[in-house]
Amino acid sequence: MCTVDIQPNGTIAATITDSWEFATISGLHPEILYHTGQIFILAWHYAWSPTYTGYIATISIAANGIITKAFINQDIVGDAAAYPCIFPLAGGGGKYGYFSTKHGAPNAGILKTFNIDGSGVITLIDTWNNWNGEVVTNLHQVCHVSTTCYTGSISDADSDGWVKTIRINNNGTIIKAIID
Predict the structure, then answer these.
(1) Whole-number Å distance between alpha carbons of 140 and 75
(2) How far apart are CA 41 and CA 39, in angstroms?
(3) Which residues contact 172 (CB under 8 A, 6 or more apart)?
(4) How far apart are the first and last CA of the chain?
(5) 137 forms bridges with which residues in the sheet?
(6) pLDDT, mean of residues 9-22
(7) CA angle, 105 as apex, 101 and 111 as ends, to 5°?
(8) Main-chain dihedrals φ then ψ at residue 179, nearest 5 degrees
(9) Which residues fall within 8 angstroms of residue 35, CB to CB, at 6 or more apart?
């Protein structure tokens, strides 16, 4: 990971402000999301283990781009958790969703919700394994539709694209049924 300076007019500085190799063996498909203050959420997976272990962590990046090179808090999302997607829940208040492909058989999705407090401490709220019922492969995305409704785009074993809708309450509780 690295930070660069981007001017208000969109000009990107030609030098890197700071960098950190946060996963020294295999930190594939990292995703970063702003949380609050200087705290950011980082998700990735290790692909060298037979289980593709997924991780979520919080880190601190100062306004001047300097990265504190240590995790504030780290949580193992689970075995077989590949290609993470983190997204804020509509209710706000530090609640986030984490969706990933479950690598291996069966290849269905993992959906988890977390609370992250103002200091960066991560607490699991709810989990729904194999939520999709279809074989999920590779990349996917989740976005908020309205109130408690979210949509997930995924692909199956035949590389067919799917869009499914689900409900997650504002408190982070997952309603474990597909809407459509």
Answers:
(1) 21
(2) 7
(3) 89, 91, 95, 113, 114, 115, 125, 126
(4) 37
(5) 155
(6) 88
(7) 30
(8) -75, -50
(9) 41, 58, 94, 116, 120
Amino acid at 14: A
Q: Which residues, 6 or more positions from 159, have their beta carbon under 8 angstroms from its beta carbon? A: 137
Pick from 84, 109, 80: nearest CA to 33? 84
Distance in angstroms (rounded) separating the CA atoms of residues 100 and 80? 9
* Residue 66 pLDDT > 60: yes
102, 112 in Cβ contact below 8 A?
no
Strand partners, 40: 34, 59
DSSP code of residue 133: S
* Residue 61: both structure tokens together: 């990046």
Closest CA to 99 of 126, 117, 81: 81
| Encoded tokens for 69 | 């090179």
Note the pLDDT of residue 89.
94
Q: Which two tokens stand for residue 149?
A: 């409704």
pTM for this entry: 0.85
Check residue 25 and report its DSSP letter: S
Residue 154 near residue 164 (C-beta atoms within 8 A): yes
